[in-house]
Write a structure and sequence with these properties.
Elements: H1 2-19, E1 39-43, H2 55-64, E2 68-75, E3 81-83, H3 106-109, E4 113-115, E5 121-125, E6 127-128, H4 129-139, E7 142-146, H5 152-161, E8 168-172, H6 176-185, E9 191-197, H7 201-214, E10 218-222, H8 233-241, E11 247-251, H9 265-274, E12 278-281, H10 284-309, H11 318-335, H12 341-360, H13 364-367, H14 375-409
Parallel strand pairs: 1-2, 1-12, 2-7, 7-8, 8-9, 9-10, 10-11, 11-12
Antiparallel strand pairs: 2-3, 3-6, 4-5
Helix pairs in contact: 1-10, 1-12, 1-14, 2-4, 6-7, 10-11, 10-12, 11-12
Length: 410
């Protein structure tokens, strides 16, 4: 009987968590604001389904939910910005070997068909930056453009003419003085992400500090060394300790930029816990799903906080009350800092265990009819149970992936 009573009480506790606080539908959070939101960046767009840097890849990435898409720019002979990783068209289509974008007008190359990851020719063609900007505006998202620093003044004029200063960010590894000079030249209207790739902590901190003073929204850090300074707590804690305007960004699509790490959820967990809040990936579907689960867990933890606050602890022991208080403090700590899905899930489990112990000492709540079962609560229990099952399935998949990767390495 006690076993069933315990189960009933746990179900009712879950119901309280679900119905006691309904999260308000907050206004959409735009990227790069200081609010703890993890920002997703799709490298070259949805390249898993469309050719890299194509119009279709860009549109698909935004449709999936990417906050930003990073693109590489080339400039044609007639000064049109074209999105392409390579200046040599032969790198994208064998029929155009040694044909350089910089030596052709846009009209001469605009109908070049691109190949996908499998090397198959597609109907996708070269995309000019103007069309990509139109997509970014339609979704109210951001493009991060590489290989544009040499033509930065021309690009700035383009952004002004196309009212795109809020939708395009220039990324560069230029020296901090050059970046500062250009920002002053443009009255700080243009947005820039500085890029530091190295293993000297003084240089890294100096670079981040200078760019933050300039008002830059992000600094991309990269290192080949898996134990490099950019993964050091001293380095990453300086972002919050010094109240930098810039946020820490890292590219997990390239092992040489993230210390030989892989582009997987377990790595995103680790990097977020270290202090990175902008992740650039080749796997945009996986990253958006990961961030969706992270946000959902944050909302669940907020509801658990409310449930703890509304729980009468007079009927339980000091130890159980202390466990609930510790769970509350752990949740508050996770919700006020950058936290990975794994970290949030751990404190959620801690809180549920505390509630389970509480239920063992509080069966009289059910017997006295303090907690009544209603159709609305039953529906809420179903919703919460579904969420728990989904989380378990997610962890199961992650464990399988890890085991599969270990098997492959062997």
């Amino acid at each position: 009987m006690k076993k069933y009573s315990k189960i009933i009480f746990l179900v009712l506790i879950l119901t309280i968590i679900a119905v006691s606080t309904v999260p308000a539908s907050a206004a959409e959070i735009k990227p790069f604001t200081q609010n703890g939101k993890i920002i997703s960046v799709s490298h070259g767009g949805n390249r898993a389904e469309y050719p890299l840097n194509s119009y279709e890849a860009i549109s698909s990435a935004f449709e999936i939910g990417a906050d930003c898409v990073s693109l590489t720019l080339q400039t044609t002979k007639d000064s049109v910005f074209v999105i392409s990783k390579y200046n040599d068209l032969g790198m994208m289509h064998s029929a155009y070997k040694d044909v350089l974008i910089s030596e052709k007008t846009f009209q001469e190359i605009q109908s070049v068909n691109l190949v996908n990851n499998s090397g198959q020719i597609t109907s996708c063609t070269l995309c000019e930056l103007k069309k990509a900007v139109e997509v970014a505006k339609r979704y109210d998202r951001i493009l991060i453009v590489d290989n544009a620093w040499e033509n930065r003044e021309m690009l700035y004029s383009f952004l002004v003419d196309n009212d795109a200063l809020d939708n395009v960010i220039i990324r560069t590894d230029a020296k901090k003085k050059e970046i500062g000079d250009f920002l002053r030249l443009t009255d700080n209207k243009v947005q820039i992400i500085g890029s530091y790739h190295g293993n000297f902590i003084f240089s890294a901190k100096s670079y981040v500090s200078a760019l933050s003073d300039f008002g830059c929204k992000a600094v991309m850090l990269g290192a080949t060394n898996p134990f490099g300074v950019i993964f050091n707590q001293s380095m990453l804690s300086s972002f919050s300790a010094n109240n930098y305007s810039a946020r820490a960004m890292i590219a997990t699509y390239d092992p040489d930029l993230c210390g030989q790490r892989t582009d997987t959820p377990s790595v995103w967990d680790d990097l977020i816990d270290r202090g990175y809040s902008i992740i650039e990936t080749n796997n945009i579907r996986d990253l958006t799903e990961y961030l969706s689960n992270l946000t959902r867990t944050q909302d669940e933890l907020k509801n658990i906080l409310s449930a703890i606050d509304s729980t009468d602890m007079s009927a339980c022991s000091i130890k159980t009350a202390s466990d609930l208080q510790e769970a509350k403090e752990a949740i508050q700590a996770e919700l006020t800092t950058l936290s990975s899905f794994e970290s949030l899930s751990k404190v959620k489990h801690q809180a549920m265990m505390a509630f389970e112990n509480f239920s063992l000492e509080s069966e009289h709540y059910v017997k006295r009819g303090v907690l009544k079962v209603t159709p609305g609560k039953i529906a809420a229990v179903i919703l919460v149970s579904t969420g728990i099952i989904a989380a378990q399935v997610y962890f199961y998949k992650m464990r399988n992936k890890k085991e599969e990767n270990k098997y492959r390495r062997k």
